[in-house]
Amino acid sequence: MALLSFIARRLLQLIPTLAFILVVIFVLVRLLPGDPASAILGDRARDADVVRINAELGLDQPLPVQFLVFVKNIATGDFGNSIHLKVSVASLIADRLPVTLMLTIMAALIALVLSVPLAFVAATRRGRLADNAIRGSFQVGLSMPVFYVGLILLTVFGAQLHWFPVGGFGNGFFDQLYHLFLPALTLALSLAAILMRNLRAAIIGVVDAEYVDFARAKGLRSRVIMTRHVLRNALISTINLFGLQVGTLLGGAVITETVFAIPGAGRLMIESIYGRDYPVVQGLTLALAVVVSLTFLLTDILQAWLDPRVAQ
Amino acid sequence: MRNLVTAALTAALLAGSASAALSVERGGVLHYGRYADSLFLDPVLNDANVDIWILSNLYDTLILPTDDGKGLEPGLATEWTVADDGLSVDLTLRKGAMFSDGSPITVDDVIWSLKRAANPDNGIWNFLLGSVEDVVAKGDDGITIKLKHTDPAILPALTVFNTAIMPKKQFEAAEGDTDAEKAKAFAEHPVGSGPFVLKSWQRGSTMTLVKNEHYWDKGEDGKPLPYLDGIEFDLLPDDATRILKLQSGEIDGAELIPYARVEELKNAEGIDMELFPSTRVANVIMNVRPQVDGKDNPLSNEKVRQGMNYAANKQAIIQIVTHGVGTPMSSYMSSATPLHTGEGAVYPYDLEKAKALMKEAGYEDGFSTSILILAGSQDEIGSATALQQMWAQIGIKLELQQVDNATRTQKYRDGEFTMRAGAWTDDIADPNEITSYYVYSPNIDAVHSGWKSEKADALFEASQKEVDQKKRAEQYAEIQKIYNATGPIIPLYETPYPVALRDKVHGFLQIPLGNNVFRAAWMDKQ
């Protein structure tokens, strides 16, 4: 019950958060120098064309009027049309956001699969060869820039070995999973390094705790001790960190999507900011804010489940 | 003897290439890697190169540009004559030409298309048809374009994408109340008469074109063009990925190869590294107003600009930035632009002359100034960094300011800049477009520089109506002389279009105006 009211409270908190984000992004995107007409016409922009285009877009109206129109439209679920692509923002988000989510989820799963067992191995063989080897190789993964890792993976596994396609997105779910593997791995490597280090430290901290000594003294088998007592307690801080890293992961998707030519939301966001495509930036920011907020909520729930004191 | 062997070898090679030219093969889908996706496939209302450069594959025009981009070839019109008084043009339409849905191309469609393109309310390209007063039918198979005044560029204008012929009925049947709304709906499933038809388009990923079964032109084998079954444009924004995908054979061609990779790909097996002649020029544009930001502006002094031009070693910049791919500019317009004059670099590198000019201008100790460059653009950062070092030798401290495109355009339009990196590509096989932007001050203040020459303005206005080619050439020679000597730019270099193709691809062409022409492209069957 405590958990349910906790979730309800958190969902309610979401509403003012999103409203705040809406206002901020509306103002911020208009504070950027330049307007959609300048962005698209570039060097050849003539005054008459710029004035005409901005009037067509309603950008000649005072800011408060534009904001009222914007809020009114949002209230009816209308996010407007993309200025440059001439299609509805809702359909663009529906096309692009799932791609990024798929990529991010795959990356998160790969990061977990890599980091949890290896953190365990490293923690239990502290200071030995395995520990040093694992920490060393993750350190390399963490310190290389994402686009560089991506290009190396593309060159080796795509262009040379032909195990994976060199970028692109493919058709159909399984083909898309196949196309997304290398980019997801690229994204996952740096996340895995962070998670592994954190989890390893947490495990080492917990292993030395008195209740673990007590459990051992009770004669519990070491596997039970490890999963039920050590891992459960060590995971609390790692899951927290994991939730916080999702934002970073979405940010990393921008670069990954460009290197791997994936038609995701990250690339759309960058292109829309450069193009001053206000409706797309607004709609997409809101959608991403919802995703990040929901992830935070999910990690909080997980934490509350692992440690019931959190929900109180 | 050696000559004889050479001659025999040459003959054998020629015979070989001649037979290769005959063995055109049909079929296949060509996968072409592009750096950016198209935005809007309406010939009249689009405003970006990503659209312009592929539109001719979907929409045909009355006249086609020749392969060198300078001449004219019959398109949907088979013949044309300009009246003796130069105030009208008669065009005969091609018999039996059809749109991609099989409906005939009528005189009505042509008249409507041209009027839509010339309408000042429509888009940003109508200025190219500014001389058009009316378009009327001439018999069942021809039209007459009536002009307000003589216009030497009216025929080249009819090769430009915005004068493409569209089906009036299908366009008007599209959803929407206004022309812009209808265009939006129509452009989702365009009907044109180009060699290809849009089949599907996943924005941000792929665009698929298929062969237009009703295309009018015939190939070398006597059967209708195009040879290919279709084209797939794959969007690959990252340069390195685009090249990798080409090397792995997943795509057959890749555009905009970075200059740094050209040499490597020239030597790569299985790849043809093409450098198609272009009208692209790169330069630095200076604000020459007497005051900028309330301070006196040294760049307003002609001698300072000339000094900076002499101190800029363009040959070195060509090596550093374009890895030797570029060539020096001999005028503000490219050497592929008709009526271009000039030979050799406009200002050959001469540090002593530069110093003398700076001294004459009263800036012996130099000054501080800045340049706006595109954040992340390797070419612009490279040029600006090189200029920074070169100009340091005449005492000029150059600050590099990296901004995004929209920011730069805004500052540029407001005159809030001292210098900026610039580039230009012609859309029409005539010098009038670049001249109207760079030289003719009433249009956009000579690329927003604030530069003005009444003589050049008057010459340009006269040249816009001058039908005597020789006289017009003289006018342009004079305009170029004035501008190159006193103008607001540092011409840097011309570059070709670097396109890498798998060696099984033949007949693909990017003309100097930028159009990607796939109508006669074909691939070896493997």
Automatic annotation (TrEMBL), chain A:
Keywords: Cell membrane, Membrane, Transmembrane, Transmembrane helix, Transport. GO terms for biological process: transmembrane transport. Residues 97-303 form the ABC transmembrane type-1 domain. It is a multi-pass membrane protein. The chain crosses the membrane at residues 12-32, 101-124, 145-164, 176-195, 230-263, 283-306. It is found in: Cell membrane. Its main location: membrane. One of its GO terms (cellular component) is plasma membrane. It comes from the Bacteria. Belongs to the binding-protein-dependent transport system permease family. This is ABC transporter permease. It comes from Jiella endophytica.
UniProtKB/TrEMBL annotation, chain B:
GO terms for biological process: peptide transport. It is found in: Periplasm. GO terms for cellular component: ATP-binding cassette (ABC) transporter complex; outer membrane-bounded periplasmic space. Keywords: Signal. Residues 1-20 form the signal peptide. Gene3D superfamilies: Dipeptide-binding Protein, Domain 3, Periplasmic binding protein-like II. Residues 72-443 form the Solute-binding protein family domain. InterPro entries: Peptide/Ni-bd, SBP_5, SBP_5_dom. One of its GO terms (molecular function) is peptide transmembrane transporter activity. CDD domains: PBP2_NikA_DppA_OppA_like. The keyword Signal applies. The keyword Signal applies. SUPFAM superfamilies: Periplasmic binding protein-like II (SSF53850). Its main location: periplasm. Pfam families: SBP_bac_5. Belongs to the bacterial solute-binding protein 5 family. This is ABC transporter substrate-binding protein. It comes from Jiella endophytica.
